[in-house]
Design goal:
single chain; 415 residues; alpha/beta; eight-stranded parallel β-sheet; 38% helix; globular
Amino acid sequence: MSLYLSRLSKTLRHQGLLQKPSVSAVSHGVRKLCRSAAMNKDGAPDPIRKKGLLERLCEGPVVGDGSYVFTLERRGYVLAGPWTPEVVIEHPEAVESLHREYLHAGADVLQASTFYSSDDKLTMPGHEAGRTITCKELNDKACTILKEVVGGADVLLCGAMSPTPSYLDGKGKQAVQQEYAKQMQAFIDHDLDFLLAEFLGHVEEAEWAIELMKTKGKPVACTLRIGPKGDCAKVPAGECAVRMADAGADVIGLNCLFDPNTSLKTMELMKTELDKRGLSPYLMMQPLGFHCPEVENEDEGYQMLPECPFALEPRQLTRFEAHAFARAAYDLGVRYIGGCCGFEPHHIRAISEELSPERGGKLGEASKKHVPWGGALKDSMLEPNRNKASRQHWEMTKPASGRPGHPDVQPKLIH
């Protein structure tokens, strides 16, 4: 299996499915001096206390989870448009099931399902959730579900916060930080392992969120929803990275809006500037699970596609492309690797398998039901499937959409 995992991404890059970043792999994101492993009061290794995020990142890659509200919308539990997470109260079993799927797939981290849970988002016009549910109630329930799923598993629990309408409304730093304080209170009360502010479009808002998170005594991560052009205020991607690092974030990176190829280009810009300034936060990527090269230079990313969000299925990554993304990200120096909208449990399994050699052979339970290169197809009752049980077949196959007359990329984007 290790040979298959280590060579897969090179094959896919050769086919043009994923371009390797032009810079060579460096040690950025892998610190020379690791924090000590989990120890008990006598200084000996503690078999009970699990290692924290920074300890794990120091030792090697950490596999994140994938999509929540986007996947739950497809399953009939989230309303597209508001994208708010009242599902944790209305159908907690749906959230619990998705957590378990990512855990089964091999994720090292599970995020509380709290995207867009801030009070100022819940009470926006046209949003029904804010009439009956508060941010505190949502986030408290999300944490309870998360902890019940994880139990005693060696998995990190992440408290994730999302951008606030108060920032876009120009209400100022104090008002914005008040919304973040309300979002993170449940994460502190439930003692989750680390804090994350994600999907931020402005590095200034990221700085304000990081400043507040740093007061809580937990590892701090922050990701922006930006492409190579930089943030929504035209701050260059490299400068965004430097400002997040200077603000004190332990982990910085990218999530959502752009596909793996575009996100890798953006991350290369960020890393280059960090290297110039002598800064070394850990790097994190959770991109889209859809190919959308035509929106690389659009601030709003895949939202500019006519088929977003209800007809994106033809653009979804294959499991092999998820392997290739994981390897390319790792080679670039990224150590926290997961996915956002469009990344399903089988994609997370692919990331886990690709990075298994760097994680001491660790794999999720789902990998027990997966034979590399379609190997299990050799036992199929059907001859056409038996003929696909080879590495050569899957290396050479270029997936088709099955829709004659449809464009490879959209000639016109939404204004």
